[in-house]
Design goal:
about 240 residues, alpha+beta, 7-stranded antiparallel beta sheet, 14 strands, binds cytidine-5'-monophosphate, EC 6.3.2.6, SAICAR_synthetase_CS
Length: about 240
């Protein structure tokens, strides 16, 4: 497989074409950004850790019957994925109050929710990714009513499976963001990444934060936290 031209560069990843149709080559970068790009840093090793953690999680999800764009891990910081047209809706699922939900609703961080809550955000950097309702999604023609239900159901299924994986290794899944895309046949596939950049993960005992909040809130060494998550999930760090 040959790496082709650069198609897209985002905050955390570069996407390249390949010589195989509909297969993309993803390179995870060492950049860390928060607050819609206002806070930035280069953190050596972060790209490799997120690539390995995302690959492990997508493999585990595929094993649990949840299809995604993930094809295979290529190297420490690269993976192959199926090309999809990303739906510009960030789907956030929450089990414990934290982050923007704590702020928006005046709730205490750490409050356990009686049932998982799914939220939708419009993926638009210029607008600062505003929270939106299902009616907004329909009005903006980002997805149909049936597709929105599919996004919600898939998010809840991913949540159920991920809660189990993390619980087994002593980690609470507080919340996470996922993205979806449509393949050539219009089928909706889980896409993008699932890593400590996109999840809140707390040590079940100590409640220590093992995710990007370490960077957002200057709580210590980010790669130490991500390495711990990789090790807990059974991955190797080279
Ligand atoms: O900031 P907020 O509390 O809304 O974030 C909820 C979850 O979604 C967190 O796990 C956060 O890391 C993730 N997220 C993300 N990308 C964004 C916004 C939130 O991965 N653009």
């Amino acid at each position: 497989m040959e790496k082709g031209q650069l198609l897209y560069e985002g905050k955390a990843k570069r996407l390249y074409a390949t010589d195989e149709q509909d297969i993309l080559w993803v390179e995870y970068k060492d950049s860390a950004t928060a607050f819609n790009g206002e806070k930035k840093a280069e953190i050596v090793g972060k790209g490799m850790l997120n690539n390995k953690i995302t690959s492990l999680i997508f493999e585990k999800l595929q094993g649990a019957g949840i299809a995604s764009h993930f094809v295979k891990q290529l190297s420490d910081h690269e993976q192959l994925v199926q090309q999809v047209a990303i739906i510009p809706v960030e789907v956030v699922t929450r089990n414990i109050v934290a982050g923007s939900m704590a702020k928006r609703l005046g709730l205490e961080e750490g409050t356990i929710l009686k049932r998982p809550i799914v939220e939708f955000y419009y993926k638009d950097d210029e607008l600062g990714d505003p929270i939106i309702t299902e009616e907004h999604i329909e009005m903006l023609e980002l997805a149909s009513t049936e597709e929105i239900q599919e996004l919600r159901e898939k998010a809840l299924k991913v949540n159920e499976v991920l809660i189990g994986f993390f619980k087994e290794v002593g980690v609470d899944l507080v919340d996470f963001k996922i993205e979806f895309g449509r393949d050539n046949n219009g089928l909706i596939l889980l896409a993008d990444e699932i890593s400590p950049d996109t999840c809140r993960l707390w040590d079940s005992e100590t409640k220590q934060k093992l995710d990007k909040d370490v960077f957002r809130r200057d709580l210590g060494n980010l790669t130490d936290a991500y390495e711990l998550i990789l090790a807990k999930l059974g991955g190797q760090h080279s």
